[in-house]
Design a protein that fits this description.
This protein has 449 residues and is α/β, with parallel strands linked by helices. Strands 1, 2, 3, 4, 5, 6, 7, 8, 9 and 10 form a 10-stranded mixed β-sheet that branches. A 4-stranded parallel β-sheet has the order 12-11-15-16. Strand 3, helix 2 and strand 4 form a beta-alpha-beta unit. Helix 7 packs parallel to helix 8. The protein is elongated, with a radius of gyration of 33 Å. 35% of the residues are buried.
Length: 449
């Protein structure tokens, strides 16, 4: 729970330990902006840019709660100067506390039902508050709303655009794998956040991620870029990243522990994992859709496993044989092109053909299609497999098998007899093809002879 709520003070109070400074008269605004800042940043150009982006909002019905780490007349004067004397300013004093404590005090003293976060060196687009307040009014089921955001460098140049999930169901399970939202980009329902326990005051790192995990299911984002998050290229605290990772990992583990371990409805995961184990490929999208419909511990494990397997397959170095095969296909098809071949058919619908078609840039002449004696009607790559009977005199065919090329050469005898030009990939002569057949299928060769 949020503890240590500051005692109310009369307006104009001048006590030295006054935690809240309010204007004399205040109407209830629609939005409270929570802006924590440390004294060391009060004179920075980034803070002035952040303040100006707040003042330039197209939506004006808000108050600005500046959360200071040690309020003094000088600090208040400097902030007021940066904001051009804006009458909407209020100050909360939380000396020597972490940001979680300060944000909780800001939530407790906010006059508005909606609270926007803002960091002192980031930038909000002019229509940010207008867009997010309108969305929250239209979607009462959403308690925390982020937005797409641009990561910028110290000079303000864009590094990348990040688009969090807009569907709260998708957001719910993706939060299980990591924080999806820039903290400063959110608008929150004050009462719902307080009811969820607010920010964990024992955490000075990743406190936002911990809160989102506890509120998962009512967290979403708009797809429009409304915020610019400044990536820090230098950090005076080298342990910060490691400490933050530890806090995030603890919150993630706790969220995983809350997942159901029901195993009665996991046929989707079993089918997809079976496909992965059998073929090395699977439809990750189906696992993600299942998680969106019903987050489940079993399907989460399946998803993590499938992602790891897919990543390892993509990252695996190409084998020496695969490199040699690609070089050979380039050499053979270049030679065919020099001979006047305008396109070739591949004979064989197995893994060898799949591997060749996975690198179409290796072919010096176009691939016209795939033929096979036994699997006509199936599909390999972008081609529907057809029977070799469709081949006509003058067609060029390349046998596609690494271990049964001799067998395919024998099977192509009828096509060759009617004028189809059949080419071998691995054997350079008919004699070599016959030797290959004799080595691997001696009984069949004896019958042929």
């Amino acid at each position: 729970m949020i503890a240590g709520k500051p005692r109310p003070l009369e307006s104009g109070c001048c006590e030295a330990d006054c935690p809240i400074i309010r204007p004399m008269v205040r109407t209830r605004p629609a939005l409270s902006v929570l802006l924590p800042i440390r004294p060391a940043r009060l004179d920075s150009a980034h803070f002035r840019e952040a303040a100006e982006s707040i003042r330039q909002q197209t939506f004006a019905d808000f108050e600005i709660i500046v959360i200071l780490d040690g309020t003094s007349d000088d600090a208040i004067s400097r902030v007021t100067d940066v904001f051009g004397g804006d009458h909407r300013l209020r100050f909360v004093d939380e000396p020597r506390s972490n940001i979680s404590v300060g944000l909780n005090r800001g939530l407790e003293t906010a006059l508005a039902p909606l609270c926007a976060r803002m960091d002192a060196d980031d930038v909000s687009e002019p229509h940010r508050f207008e867009t997010q307040v309108a969305f929250m009014r239209q979607h009462p089921e959403i308690a925390v709303l982020g937005s797409a955001f641009a990561r910028i460098d110290e000079a303000g140049a864009k590094l990348e655009t990040v688009r969090p999930p807009t569907d709260p169901r998708e957001m719910q399970w993706k939060l299980l794998l990591g924080n999806q939202i820039a903290h400063g980009s959110v608008v929150m329902r004050r009462d719902e956040v307080i009811a969820a326990g607010g920010y964990d005051e024992s955490q000075d790192r990743a406190q936002d991620y911990d809160l989102w995990l506890r509120m998962a299911g009512s967290v979403a984002a708009v797809n429009e870029v409304l915020y610019r998050y400044r990536a820090r290229t230098t950090d005076r605290h080298p342990r910060r990243t490691h400490d933050q990772a530890l806090v995030a990992a603890r919150s993630m583990r706790q969220a995983w522990a809350r997942l159901s371990a029901d195993t009665t409805e996991n046929e989707t995961a079993e089918r997809i994992l079976a496909e992965l184990l059998a073929t090395g490929r699977c439809d990750l999208g189906r696992l993600e859709a299942a998680m969106t419909e019903r987050p489940n511990a079993t399907e989460l494990i399946a998803l993590l496993f499938a992602r790891a397997e897919a990543s390892s397959v993509r990252a695996a170095p190409e084998s020496a044989f695969a490199r040699a095969r690609r070089a050979l296909i380039r050499e053979r098809t270049e030679r065919l092109g020099e001979m006047g071949c305008g396109g070739i058919w591949l004979w064989g619908a197995g893994r060898h053909t799949e591997a060749l078609l996975a690198n179409p840039e290796d072919f010096a002449v176009p691939v016209l299609g795939v033929v096979d004696d036994f699997t006509a009607g199936s599909r390999v790559g972008v081609f529907d497999v057809v029977h070799p009977g469709v081949l006509a005199a003058g067609d060029d065919v390349l046998l596609s098998s690494d271990w049964a090329e001799g067998v395919l050469w024998e099977a192509s005898a009828a096509a060759r007899a009617r004028g189809v030009r059949v080419h071998r990939l691995y054997a350079d002569s008919e004699d070599e093809a016959a030797i290959t057949v004799a080595r691997r299928f001696p009984a069949r060769v004896r019958r042929v002879v």
